[in-house]
Design a protein that fits this description.
About 18% of the residues have low confidence. The chain has two helices and ten strands, in the order ααββββββββββ. Helix content is 17%, strand content 44%.
Length: 163
């Protein structure tokens, strides 16, 4: 014979257990837009890309800005059909130095600008002319690859003045 009130206690316990499981499941579900989910995921945007028309047949430079609205990343390399060798460089105190990578800070930016960080295209397959577009692939440690179309500007182009 069952005790009085036993079925109702069992039902109450089952309801409480189900409610707890549902609450835990819902707590694990979140929007991908929440800051905690984006903290480790880089959100990269490339702007201002250009290549000054090279004066030599064998070398060219490239510039752009990486804006990151997510977690930190690292630019590890660059490839292009224009040149078998595309290297990363920094300029400090007027001295150019090849780099293996560049950090892209979380919620920050990385600038490649004349007189500072830049790309060097070596052993060009052809000398690109003003008006051409050079296809470049940026390789990031976390974000993977980002393709960029880099317009060739005049050799004296200054992005601040537009010429």
């Amino acid at each position: 014979m069952s005790r009085p009130g036993a079925p109702s206690r069992r039902l109450a316990g089952c309801v409480a257990l189900t409610a707890t499981a549902l609450a835990l499941a819902l707590a694990g579900c979140g929007s991908d837009d929440s800051p905690s989910n984006n903290a480790g995921k880089p959100e990269l945007k490339i702007t201002g890309a250009y290549m000054p028309a090279p004066v030599m047949d064998t070398m060219a430079a490239g510039f752009f800005t990486v804006t990151n609205s997510g977690g930190a990343d690292t630019l590890t390399s660059v490839t292009s059909d224009l040149a078998p060798d595309v290297t990363l460089h920094s300029t400090k105190g007027g001295a150019m130095e090849e780099r293996k990578s560049f950090a892209v800070p979380a919620d920050g930016s990385l600038d490649f600008a004349s007189g500072g960080n830049h790309l060097m295209f070596e052993k060009l397959t052809h000398k690109p002319l003003e008006g051409e577009k050079v296809s470049v692939t940026l390789h990031f440690a976390k974000a993977g690859t980002v393709k960029v179309s880099m317009p060739v500007k005049s050799a004296t182009y200054n992005p601040k003045t537009g010429h």
